[in-house]
Design brief:
Elements lengths: L14 H51 L3 E5 L4 E8 L3 E4 L1 H4 L8 E4 L5 E10 L4 E6 L20 E6 L7 E12 L9 E4 L11 E3 L5 E11 L2 E9 H13 L6 E2 L2 E9 L5 E12 L4 H5 L6 E5 L2 E2 L3 H9 L6 E8 L2 E8 L1 E2 L1 H12 L1
Antiparallel strand pairs: 1-2, 1-4, 2-3, 3-6, 4-5, 5-6, 7-8, 7-10, 8-9, 9-12, 10-11, 11-12, 13-20, 14-15, 15-16, 16-17, 16-18, 18-19
Length: 359
């Protein structure tokens, strides 16, 4: 009997086939390496181009606005200013020119080295803003932006004349908004880490679009640490400019009360600052007293706008139109009330206007 062997496929491995597979694998590896290197190269090249583009962009911004920044000098002070109209209207801080006497001169130096004597068109010491006028035309004008659009962390440029070094440019970011500490009566400052020094006062803080978003005003610093810079938001500046040019003075709203922030703490000292403010005092014969507001009332809203702090309320009331009626939502003994109130013009502004008319 003959046993039939099972048939199996015969696989023959040759040196040639092993070599071909090895080369194929090597080619795949090389292609992967090339792809990775190409991706990395394109990424790096994109970053370099982006950096170059950003640098070029900032160079363009500085070139476009630098000639609209001027140097201002008096007998006792020096600062910066911003040309806001081509016929010679210049914006600066009030404190730059506040100490001049009757016969003192204010000199304005342009970037083209021309010097002009300036006269004061209007001042507002409570917001630290002044408007000057020089006798010339066809000046480069800065574009005033919108400070309500500012975001913390965005890049900004400051231009001014620190320590007498004209047209100094510094770069930084917006560090914080709505700072309520500073040398002015009305406080709502932009904080920046862009280098600001004595002489920068009255110069512009500029965003990445080349728009003025703030008026550099004061610094907090010392010999052993880097200072903090603060600027007046340009939207506040615009309101002051409009009133100074049309009325000669800034008219502010008046309610006639002082308010306090509300801080609630438990026995362990833990708690939080609450929304709303508490009335601490009320002036006699004031809109607040006539409306029936009382000490210890908690103000929650004005005209449906939430009250978050005493400083926010103060700034808001300042720009209410005199003789307009507002509605104040308060809490009194755990009862909610809506109190109508007629805004008046701030008394010291009336006195100032009357004195001006008598002169």
């Amino acid at each position: 009997m003959v046993t039939k062997l099972k048939e199996h496929p015969v696989i023959i491995h040759t040196a040639r086939s092993r070599h071909t597979r090895f080369l194929a694998l090597l080619c795949i590896i090389l292609l992967i390496i090339v792809a990775i290197l190409t991706i990395n190269f394109l990424s790096i090249n994109k970053k370099i181009k982006s950096s170059d583009s950003l640098e070029t962009e900032y160079l363009g911004i500085v070139d476009a606005i630098r000639d609209s920044v001027v140097s201002i000098g008096t007998e006792k002070a020096a600062g910066s200013g911003i040309i806001i109209k081509e016929d010679g209207l210049i914006l600066t801080n009030y404190h730059v020119i506040s100490e001049i006497k009757e016969n003192d001169k204010i000199q304005v130096l342009l970037t083209d080295k021309r010097i002009f004597s300036a006269k004061i068109l209007g001042t507002d010491d409570k917001a630290d803003i002044a408007i000057l006028k020089i006798n010339t035309t066809k000046l480069p004008v800065a574009n005033l932006g919108n400070s309500d659009d500012i975001k913390v962390g965005e890049k900004v440029i400051a231009i001014g004349n620190p320590f007498g070094f004209e047209s100094t440019v510094t770069l930084g970011i917006i560090s914080a908004m709505h700072r309520d500490r500073g040398p002015t009566e009305y406080k709502d400052f932009i904080q920046t880490d862009a280098s600001i020094n004595p002489g920068n006062s009255g110069g512009p803080l500029i965003n990445a679009r080349g728009e003025v978003i703030g008026l550099n005003t004061f610094i907090v610093g010392g010999e052993k640490f880097i200072g903090l810079g603060f600027a007046i938001p340009v939207n506040l500046v615009k309101k002051v400019i409009e009133q100074l040019l049309t009325k000669g003075v800034v008219v502010r709203g008046f309610i006639g009360m002082s308010v306090l922030d509300i801080i609630e703490l438990d026995s362990k000292g833990n708690g939080r600052i609450q929304e709303g403010v508490k009335i601490g005092s009320i002036a006699s014969n004031s809109p607040a007293s006539r409306a029936g507001l009382k000490i210890d009332d908690i103000i929650k809203e004005i005209n449906s706008i939430k009250v978050t702090s005493s400083n926010q309320l103060r700034n808001y009331v300042a720009w209410l139109v005199p003789n307009a009626e507002i509605k104040i939502r308060i809490m009194r003994n755990n009862t909610e009330l809506i109190i109508p109130l007629i805004i008046e013009e701030r008394p010291d502004i009336k006195e100032e206007a009357n004195q001006t008319e008598k002169k």
